Amino acid sequence: MTATFSQISVLPGVWPTSGLLERLCAVSERPPLVLPEWPSENSADRRAFVGTDAILAGWKDELGADRLAQLPALRYIGLRATSTDRVDLDYATGHGVTVSPIQGYGDIGTMEFVAEQLLRHARRGDPARGELSGRRLGVIGYGPVGQGVGRIATALGMDVLFHTPTHRLAAAGGPRWAPLRTVLATSDYLTFHSPAYRHVVGLDELKSVPSEAVVVLTTLGLPMAEADLIEWQRGRTGKVVLDLCAGHGLSAAAKQVPGVELHELYAARTAESVRRAEAGLLANLVACLNPSERESR
């Protein structure tokens, strides 16, 4: 007999397609419970929800110990996200709950969004429309997305510097590691690909960025304190371009600062990335039910 979960609950950050919901029925005794929000004590969904043994959640969904403790049967959390920052991992570990993020599903969309913004701002229609070739791109954070952006920029003829906390050797002719201050102070364009919800630069460091530099943010949460962003940007002429991941929770005051440009889209969310994400969610569910599947992956 094929192993199944008893009740899978799908939190709003998953944005499930009908195809995913259909496939979830094959690994659950009951139809998936699709929730518009975390159920309250008086919610109609509460009774079924309390029996949940598997949750699917997105990067916006908060899964602190107070919430997880409401689900005594919980044994699995599947994340439609690469970051586990919003899950209380100590609670999960202590209660035998497996937490499975997915990796790489939105990398291409994010890289393409950054490249699009670099090109758009270089060629924005000023009297002297510019080229990216010969200009410097600074990349803060150099995981798979940062590296991909670096490759694209290099192919376009840009000089690419990147910064990570630990010095890295780089291939000749490609992006080069440099200290944070050097990257910030000498770049015509900057893009951040630093860890989720982490402030990696402060106001003093931001003030070293050239006034006219264009900054693209697609991180989960701002890579600096909002107050620092506001004060810094008010004294600049360059743009700060954000997608909805970086701009999540951004105040009205920050949105109104001249030069702050919030795009009403998630850079990582494309038709292709949705398919990859849902395939990853389902594969992780099956692997949890069948440990031999996980070992063979």
From TrEMBL:
Instruction: Supply the Pfam families for this chain.
Output: 2-Hacid_dh, 2-Hacid_dh_C
Record-annotated D-isomer specific 2-hydroxyacid dehydrogenase NAD-binding domain positions: 124-247
Q: Which SUPFAM superfamilies match?
A: Formate/glycerate dehydrogenase catalytic domain-like, NAD(P)-binding Rossmann-fold domains
What keywords does the record list, in alphabetical order?
Answer: NAD, Oxidoreductase
GO MF terms on file? NAD binding; oxidoreductase activity, acting on the CH-OH group of donors, NAD or NADP as acceptor
List, for all copies, the residue spans of the domain called D-isomer specific 2-hydroxyacid dehydrogenase catalytic.
Answer: 50-289
Q: Which family does it belong to?
A: Belongs to the D-isomer specific 2-hydroxyacid dehydrogenase family.
Indicate what this protein is called per its UniProt record.
Answer: D-3-phosphoglycerate dehydrogenase
Q: Which organism is it from?
A: Amycolatopsis keratiniphila subsp. keratiniphila
Q: What is the lineage of its organism?
A: Bacteria, Bacillati, Actinomycetota, Actinomycetes, Pseudonocardiales
